[in-house]
Amino acid sequence: MSERELPCPSQEMIDAVTDLWRLRRPGPANLFADPSFVRLRNCCASLHPYTRALGFNSTLATALRTLGLPCGLSKDFKELPSTPEDAAGALHAAFLATRSRKLHLVPMDLADRLSPLDFGGARLRRFDANELRELFDEEQLRRTHPKHKLEVDRFAEFQWLVVEETVEFDQDKGARVLPDLLIDFSQDFGRIEPHEGRHSGAVEAVLFFLLLAPWEEWAAMGELDWRGFQVPWVHTVDRDIFVRRTAPPSPDSLNWTIAIFLDSWGGEIEEEVPLVRNLDDQAEADLPNWDQRYWEIVERARKSVLFETPIVHFFVRAYFAEGIDEFLAHVIVIEAALGMHADYDQSQRIAPDRHKRMGASKRMRHRVAGLLGSRDFGDQYDRLFDIRSSFLHGRPMGGISSEDRNEARSLARRVVTAVIEATKSGSVVSREDYLDCLLDAGMQLL
What we know:
The protein is 43% helix and 11% strand. It has a five-stranded antiparallel sheet with strand order 3-4-5-1-6. The protein is globular, with a radius of gyration of 27 Å. The chain is built from 18 helices and nine strands.
């Protein structure tokens, strides 16, 4: 059923909301005990089975404030709230909704001038102050956080990655409005979910896609950091009125510097501007290749047998990691892409095993060489793997140079992009057979 086909709210619900909308600021000391609130809660019984459950009052109050409950607005809120009829209609529709639209707003901190991009459900570009007001839904934000000041003029100094996501609700009404009701308290709350991401799956899919670009080659000062941008936080705007909005961080959480300009009289003017990591001109020329066409190629690749292992997980983790953890994550990306359990367990190998006496690290070395078409890449992997092993096994070692750090990033990226290319033909039906062919190809290069 589309939103336009949703039935209208009952007159009783409209009357209850109308009474609530008549409450004067700052409202009753206990909103939950107000007769009009109790009346509205009872009206919701036909739409939600747990109106008497602990927590429902708070959830309903969150929705009312999101819709603009007048008595909850600050004195300087000049915009008119929604009418009682509109608020009742929105509340009624929210109970019957089956999905919600989310906007994930990602500041591209430290980013040099980047080409605007549109792919999948994502947009990368600079937005002006009015566009940011709309993206952040400033009016709704002020309803739930009246003291928060959204500094859109300062945010507009940065480029933004905006990721749109549609989330399907759990079919159980209780899980939608009161998810705590369905918690299984017998579960192990301390367990580790191995593939859980730092951010929404939609955001991490977009970051994975962008990280396939050769940022380490574009970076003007790669010896300091290969990353072309930094993601300090992600602010999510959820259109579900039952979800309480969080206030976005301050622009001060991003990186700024002081630039000095000369005025028309030759005097110096200091101005605060975003700090950037400079990229060479090739970035502006090549980044437009990360378009909708390539997005579809990558999305198809992720559904293939070659991405059954956690390649994406470690590739994105390497971006967020620091120091030795970043280096290790990039080496693990290569192992996730080209390694098999059978490399270590001979009983798992498919007969006939043509390379019975070859160890796991040599198998990996040959596969890297076979995939990228040069033994030099196999030798590169061998050297990086030795650094990794020195650290893990406690062998004496010095610092890892910026050259080795960037080499690990570069090799991991090359391997992942080559695996993506291998899926384009659609002919790979067995990961084991594919990796075995790479092993043969790598050996031939020796």
